[in-house]
Amino acid sequence: MTSNQIDGLMPVVILMGFALLLFLGGHFTSVLLSKKKPSHMKQTPYECGEEPVGTAWSAFNVRFYVVGLIFIIFDVESVLMFPVATIFNELNDRGDGLYILLVFLSFISVLLEGIAYCWKKGDLDWVKSFQVSQKRNQQKDEKKVVA
Fold first, then answer.
1. Which of 19, 33, 101, 125 has CA 20 to 30 A from 5's CA?
2. Per-residue pLDDT at 21
């Protein structure tokens, strides 16, 4: 590295050092000044001013996570199409238009196949999957009664 490059990076290094110093100073100050007297009230989970009801380790429906992941996947993939659509005319003028169009259409076909798969599997249908699990539970209960 030349002397000019190092001189150009010095403000960044100084700022990073200052940020690290502020972080460590604030952390150690809070450790030194904080009171360490745990109580029952301090150890209860905070629920926006409400008294906690039940345990924090309750069963949570996995479908919320599945739908969230499906949304993130398709949202990110659809956002990735915008840059290609923006520069498509430039690529077409350069002679790569047909290739880019085929890649773009294959990308969209993968998206459509993914949506069809999720739909067929029942991940997008809340009521149906709930009814199916309810029927399974009823069948299990009927088998217990018969046995």
1. 19
2. 97
- In this prediction, residue 121 carries a pLDDT of 83
DSSP-assigned letter for residue 51: P
CA separation for the pair 93, 88 (Å, rounded): 9
Give 3-state DSSP helix, strand, coil % of the chain, rounded to 5.
75, 0, 25
Sketch the domain layout of the chain as residue ranges. 3-34, 63-146
- What residues contact residue 2 under an 8 Å CB cut-off, 6+ apart? none
124 close to 70: Cβ distance less than 8 angstroms: yes
The whole model's pTM is what?
Answer: 0.46
Token digits of residue 2: 């030349």
Q: What are phi and psi of 3, to 5 degrees?
A: -65, -35
Backbone angles phi, psi at 59, to 5 degrees: -70, 135
Does 55 or 136 have the greater pLDDT score?
55
Q: Whole-angstrom Cα distance, residue 117 to residue 109?
A: 12
In the chain, DSSP finds a helix count (H) and a strand count (E) of 7, 0
